[in-house]
Amino acid sequence: MMIKKQRGMTLVELMIAAVLGMIVTYFIINIMISSSRTAMQSDGLAQAQENGRFVLSWLHSETRRAGYVPGIIDARIQPFADLCAAEFPLPPANNADCTFEANDRASDRLAIRRTFTTASGSAKDAMDCTGVDLTAIRAEGDVLTDVYWVERNFVSANTANNDAYDDVLRCVTYFNGIPVANAQVIASGVEGLQVLYGIRPGEDPDRNTNVSRYVALNDILPIDWDSVRAARIAILTRAFSDNTINLDTRSYILLDSNPISVDPLQTFTFTDRIARHIQTTTVYLPNE
């Protein structure tokens, strides 16, 4: 009986096997890293988009209330507050119920005027912009102003300076320049708000003319509120994670915001890894 000799692998074969194993491992790791990065980017963009959809839906619904009066024969009221004076306070301070126009990272301020009433059948008409019931402190027919603004690096008990949750959209409701309730945060992760106002051209006694152009209020002084028929709103929202996309410098243009400035901090230009998203809506004013 012949016994066959068994031979082991040679050093060359072992080296080839090791190299092939390393190559396979390298590609597998690359695929895993790429998949993880893609998932992270998709998740970051989804966060920014979902946040933006919520904020824009809220602002769209609230802006439609501009100029609201409960009765058809009631005299119309001005749909938005006048422009802020030169030395204007910041909300929620007293007398900050005004429209602020900015073309930089300071963002616009949206100031919606409407009538307080308990007779409309909608509980919302008797609340402030955050849902606080005002029936005990406001009278029928009072004209309220809901002010929305972006506050960057907002610090509270639940946030730290310069984190993902401290760029917020806030709201407070005023009556005669005095807040009727505490200001509240509507949403976190909001970095920009810009508003343009749609105006109809020329004389239109029957109010049938469509909007001809969208402008900033400070471009049509003195303001003819009778000609304002719509509002176009743009927001910039961000992901809550600080590391979702590749490091790069990215610029965002919201409506009439300035894309270029001597000071980059005054534009919507960022150098980081944060996913952001612009969303825009146009709101017809049914009460005008």
UniProtKB/TrEMBL annotation:
What is the protein's species of origin?
Thalassolituus pacificus
Task: Output this protein's name.
Answer: PilW family protein
Pfam families reported in the protein's UniProt record: N_methyl, PilW
Instruction: Write down the NCBIfam families for this protein, in alphabetical order.
Output: IV_pilin_GFxxxE
| Record keywords, A-Z | Membrane, Transmembrane, Transmembrane helix
Question: Has keyword Membrane?
Answer: yes
Q: Transmembrane region positions? A: 12-33
> InterPro entries, from UniProt?
N_methyl_site (IPR012902), PilW (IPR032092)
Q: Name one GO biological process term.
A: type IV pilus assembly
Q: Which domain of life is it from?
A: Bacteria
